[in-house]
Amino acid sequence: MANWELKSCCNNDQVAFMVTVGVFTVVILALWRTVLLTPFKLITVFLHEASHAIACKLTCGHVEGIKVHADEGGVTQTRGGVYWLILPAGYLGSSFWGMALILASTNLTTARIAAGCFLLALVVVLFYAKNWTLRGLCIGFIIFIAIIWLLQERTTVRILRYVILFIGVMNSLFSVYDIYDDLISRRVHSSDAEKFAEICPCPCNGVGWGFIWGMISFLFLAGSMYIGLVILS
Q1: What is the C-alpha to C-alpha distance for residues 91 and 215, in angstroms, rounded to an integer?
Q2: pLDDT digit string (tens) for 132-190?
Q3: What is the Cα–Cα distance from 41 to 166, expressed in whole angstroms?
Q4: Is the dihedral of CA 20, 25, 28, 31 positive or negative?
Q5: CA 140 to CA 106: how far, in whole Å?
Q6: Residue 38: C-alpha distances to residues 18, 24, 72, 177, 203 (Å)
Q7: Which residues, 6+ apart, have CB-to-CB distance to 225 below 8 Å?
């Protein structure tokens, strides 16, 4: 049985991991409202919509199309499937993928696997894309990840782990912010949380579900830091 107890801290790898996450967090917050982060914000929206699509497929539904808009919005058109699982899958799935990418960055082999899975997801979603913003995003990141991977394998510029970590941190932070902005700070009646509240028998409105999903997303982020330190110990 795996032991997830953190028995020691802080060796060089653990310090480097925490410092890198900290630096990335500061950089992301400093550049939050600049165009430099727009592609990475859109890739978070991509993972949000892809999570809806995965939940739909896993519950025997049909994905009719996916759109990601330049204003950081998106929509996944589905038919069938289990609706009460598809709705929360967007925000929670996006947070989960952020955690997975952060953990994958702790090792070069897992970073390669994550990059490969990410490339595969981009190619698959490319065939479901219903607008050119999403098509361009997929093509752009396929080229970007391929170049980073080529540099990793063929040159001394070995930054694949850092790119995967940056996308993971960006995804985790943007997921928590997106939940707060869309579901808690203002009430959007067409949001996933409001729709979920309508079909869920629990006495909880959309803001309440937004708070619950936000806490789960924050736990994913905190969990990724803890498990990452355990892996590196």
Answers
A1: 11
A2: 999 999 999 999 999 999 999 999 999 999 999 999 999 999 888 888 877 677 666 67
A3: 12
A4: negative
A5: 25
A6: 25, 15, 8, 15, 37
A7: 18, 21, 102
